[in-house]
Amino acid sequence: MSEINVVVAGASGKMGSEALRMIKKHAELNLVACIDMKHTGKKVNEVEGLPNFEAKFYNDIDLCLTEVNADVLVDLTSPKVGFKHTKAAIVHGVRPVVGTTGFTPEELDELTALAKEKEVGAVIAPNFAMGAVLMMQFSKLAAKYFPDIEIIEKHHDQKLDAPSGTAVKTAELIQENRQSKAQGHPEEQETITGARGANVDGMRIHSVRLPGLVAHQEVIFAGPGENLKIQHDSFHRESFMSGIKFAIDHVINMKELVYGLEHLMLD
Amino acid sequence: MSEINVVVAGASGKMGSEALRMIKKHAELNLVACIDMKHTGKKVNEVEGLPNFEAKFYNDIDLCLTEVNADVLVDLTSPKVGFKHTKAAIVHGVRPVVGTTGFTPEELDELTALAKEKEVGAVIAPNFAMGAVLMMQFSKLAAKYFPDIEIIEKHHDQKLDAPSGTAVKTAELIQENRQSKAQGHPEEQETITGARGANVDGMRIHSVRLPGLVAHQEVIFAGPGENLKIQHDSFHRESFMSGIKFAIDHVINMKELVYGLEHLMLD
Amino acid sequence: MSEINVVVAGASGKMGSEALRMIKKHAELNLVACIDMKHTGKKVNEVEGLPNFEAKFYNDIDLCLTEVNADVLVDLTSPKVGFKHTKAAIVHGVRPVVGTTGFTPEELDELTALAKEKEVGAVIAPNFAMGAVLMMQFSKLAAKYFPDIEIIEKHHDQKLDAPSGTAVKTAELIQENRQSKAQGHPEEQETITGARGANVDGMRIHSVRLPGLVAHQEVIFAGPGENLKIQHDSFHRESFMSGIKFAIDHVINMKELVYGLEHLMLD
Amino acid sequence: MSEINVVVAGASGKMGSEALRMIKKHAELNLVACIDMKHTGKKVNEVEGLPNFEAKFYNDIDLCLTEVNADVLVDLTSPKVGFKHTKAAIVHGVRPVVGTTGFTPEELDELTALAKEKEVGAVIAPNFAMGAVLMMQFSKLAAKYFPDIEIIEKHHDQKLDAPSGTAVKTAELIQENRQSKAQGHPEEQETITGARGANVDGMRIHSVRLPGLVAHQEVIFAGPGENLKIQHDSFHRESFMSGIKFAIDHVINMKELVYGLEHLMLD
Question: Residue A161 and residue B189: Cβ atoms within 8 Å?
Fold first, then answer.
């Protein structure tokens, strides 16, 4: 495999620094620069907690992509900054790999058109954990045959929202294939409010919040005499890195924008 | 082991017929009579679906216990009939083993006093599944060290009430040892109502209802970096029979009434 | 939906009688005859334990398919008898739905050619539990991205072989997509022989045998920081019936033989 | 609660530094010194990766316990060093809390006698994860009623030994109460060697090794129609710290040595 020159934006954040550690492990990936507001001018190895790279920090993407010879931009910043970065990368002919849930449909349309025009590959994904992507896609497929479904998602007890974004996204994908149905006995009663969980078109979602946990979800499909369960456990944010590596490897040979890792994995 | 003569009340019901099958498997247990409104005068082996016993059906407990030589009465009827049967058995010197959740505290007090006076052993239990009894008792013990607890109970989708009686009972036992606590983040928000389940003193109970399931419960105890889970799966009502056998074996040597199988198992 | 006339072969066996109960539940399915050596000449409702159908038992498939107007033959007999039945059905223009793992490749080739020639639909499947079929197919797909895989299968303790046929089949499907790999630490040591399970090309299979269990399997896919688990629980042989119903519905509109339910479900 | 002065030995190791973070979280715990060969003379806050404490590093336990006013010594070193430290602490009237599996019975006897003579409390434990301790003790209790038991332990794939020490220890505890039994069908056969796991007096242990995992164990107890499962998941070494805190709180009021956290938790 030939070498790939990578720029990482958001490199001093939690996900960004994890991405640097991932790059360190793969001989065919070269870190050629980082983009980050905080450490402009420093080298990566001068910042505490980051791996030993000679690459420099930039705060301006255009300057960065002009000065270094980059193949791929890994962007792990915010939706607002990420949009600007993605656009600039495509214009510079650098393939963006972007982790975000925050782009609007209009922004995605604009980026898709731009990538097509410039014939530059791009991967934008709300979730780079390959196991989570498979869990969601398998759930969508299984929903065709099992309309009785409950989702149990479990997270650490510092999480603010319930259900989780992944659970809601899973339910949406399921709804594309599930025959609408009110589950449970028609006359079932909650003797304590909330016992039966959140009701999404008759499906149920239960949110567990406990210390010790990280990010876990099980989707249970049920029919007469049988259950099928699809479960994902994320023990560490390292789980997102294999998906980013996978996207880097693919984007090199692409000529357009793909939204969602599943299209590279299952289509 | 010497032989034990058993009368089964409610013998043609689902639990009663299961008890007959259990007795059939144990050479040291003799079925000497059944009590049941429907089949008076018939022999057990004349009723479709019941095992091959010569024992006769009675509809009157006093007549039955006068005519046959019984050591133990296994009562699997209703609370109302069961109370009458239990009383009669103790008076006749026959040890009752009774599966019911329905006796009032006053009824239990009366039976306890009567058993003590007559020096007749008796076992009354709301749950004869030994695994479920252990799950509840272990949960009570663990609650001392882990105040962060969530219960997920799963049943077939024909169940009417949520949470299940076992989940509520488990929560009550936990509350005896758990330091009161509002779990989850203080500012957590349900974006879909019910996601966080039923709130019992800050603990959470989630009720799953799906076809294919029978009766299942997991109790999760959580602390920094770790989870302890105690789970019971009941796949078949046969699961109640080992507890009934266990109670029969013990009641023979008892001289008073015990309420709850846990007092024979863990004290 | 128009009505479908069904013949069931092996109707007095465990699976066959379950199939009759399934037919009873669906108004659009008519039971028009049964084939079975034991009850020739009787009506179904004259045999203890079977549902109330007027249909007659035959012992000769040609006679049966000549006398009754059948659309589909559900065959739940043995491989030897099943092969003869399947052939006869195709010749009579009756679509066979056959549950068996026992046909040889030559027999399958012969039946495939015959069905094609006669333009008669046919479904032959080693497993009609739709959840189990999905578990296996999803496992095959996931193996592409996660070469570290362990299978834990759990069955009742009366099972003679370990690993189960389903586990072995799952491993074979996985091998089609999995990059070969010796899992675990290169220097790992078993201090008690067998701890690390059965070794299939570096993958591991563990067979649990316990009372109370029915048929369960989990396939765990692992990567850095994450696990994906696909689990199937069969609680009752009723679990095979939704797949048979699904095959009946499809075979009506087919003009050739399909081997394996997955080709109707996921292709 | 009055304040407790703590010395930590092995403070720059993985467990030791975790202990420092735990002390930081509890206002009633004062770190008064550390013992460690590497950083003698430095302050804790001068060592990278350790929390901000003014306490000093010593390399000599006698000097340390003479110069500082300590209530408790937390020792997370090696068995050899730990033994010397424990002895010294008791002589100085400082209560040791020691995490080790490595003391010989003779060493334990000697320390027990010394603690009794000096009337100094001491806690030595092979496992400070309170959930793991409960898992093992509950397993021992349940074994009395369910002789059919299988253990599935799951660890990261860098682990060298299988089964894990915890699984072996659990099996030993179970054997104290379990009626000896060859599990599974008498004629069961492994078609692939190792499928049925490690055989410990008829019980079975299965060792799963996969990336992503940390340290997990489930113990399954089975009877007719039911399963009881006791599962512990350790997601992070932080899980050992609540047990160390618990031991510190108790040892203050003790006058003898206790081996094993279970004696403080369940007796």
Answer: yes
Per-residue pLDDT tens over the stretch D241-252: 999 999 999 999
Closest residue in chain D to residue C185, using alpha carbons only: D158
Chain B: residue whose CA lies nearest to C235: B212
Instruction: Check whether the bond before C147 is cis (ω within 30° of 0).
Output: no
Return the pLDDT at A1. 56
Asked if C153 contacts C164 with a C-beta cutoff of 8 angstroms, the reply is yes
Asked if C265 has any chain A CB less than 8 Å from its own CB, the reply is: yes
pLDDT tens for each residue of C182-207:
999 999 999 999 999 999 999 999 99
Of A3-7, A12-16, C225-229, D183-187, minimum mean pLDDT range: A12-16
Catalytic residue among D85, D140, D155, D232: D155
Tell me, yes or no, if B234 comes closer than 8 A to chain D by beta carbon: yes
Cα angle at A127 between A180 and A234, to 5 degrees?
95
Number of neighbours of residue C133 by Cβ within 10 angstroms: 25
Q: Does B188 touch chain A (CB under 8 A)?
A: yes
B155 among known catalytic residues: yes
Place of tokens 């069908």: D185
pLDDT in tens, C90-107: 999 999 999 988 899 999
C182 vs chain A: nearest CA distance in angstroms? Answer: 20
**Has residue B59 got a pLDDT over 80?**
yes
Nearest-CA distance from D118 to chain B in Å? 30
Please tell me which chains touch C, using 3 or more CB pairs under 8 Å as the contact test: A, B, D
Question: What confidence tens digit (pLDDT) does each residue in A97-115 have?
Answer: 999 888 999 999 999 999 9
Nearest to D74 by CA among D116, D112, D21: D21
Q: Convert the pLDDT of each residue in B223-243 to its tens digit.
A: 999 999 999 999 998 999 999
Reduced DSSP (H G I as helix, E B as strand, rest coil) percent helix, strand, coil of chain C, to 5: 35, 25, 40
3-state helix, strand, coil in chain A (%, to 5): 35, 25, 40
- Where helices occur in B182-224 by DSSP H, the ranges are none
Residue B202: what residue type? G
| Contact yes or no for B145 and D265 at CB 8 A | yes
Number of Cβ atoms within 10 Å of the Cβ of C140: 19
Q: Show Cβ contacts of residue A248 under 8 Å, excluding neighbours closer than 6 positions.
A: A4, A6, A29, A72, A74, A97
CA angle C107, C113, C117 (to 5 degrees): 145
* C238 close contact with A: CB closer than 8 A: yes
**In the sheet that A29-35 helps form, which strands lie side by side, from edge to edge?**
A56-58, A29-35, A4-9, A72-75, A95-99, A122-125, A257-259
Instruction: Provide the chain D residues 98-137 that lie in CB contact (below 8 A) with chain A.
Output: none
Q: Which amino acid is at C188?
A: E
Report, as an integer, the average pLDDT of D141-148. Answer: 97
- Known catalytic residues of C are 155, 159
% of chain A surpassing 70 pLDDT = 100
Q: Would you call the peptide bond into D163 cis, given omega within 30 degrees of 0 as the criterion? A: yes
Instruction: Identify the three-state secondary structure at position D132.
Output: helix
Does residue D1 surpass a pLDDT of 60?
A: no
Q: Given a cut of 80, is residue C1 above it in pLDDT?
A: no
% of chain B exceeding 70 in pLDDT: 100
Q: Which residue is it, tokens 């599944």?
A: B129
Closest CA to D77 of D89, D91, D66, D92: D89
Would you state the structure tokens that stand for residue D216, as one six-digit string? 């997990």
Which whole number is the average pLDDT over B229-258? 96
Q: Which residues pair with B58 in a beta bridge?
A: B35
Q: Which of C222, A78, A200, A150 is closest to D209 using CA atoms?
A: C222
**Are the CB atoms for B37 and B63 separated by under 8 Å?**
no
Structure tokens at A80: 């607002």
**CB distance B68 to B53 below 8 Å:** no
Q: Are B7 and B72 in contact (CB under 8 A)?
A: yes
Which residues of chain D neighbour C217 with C-beta distances below 8 Å?
none
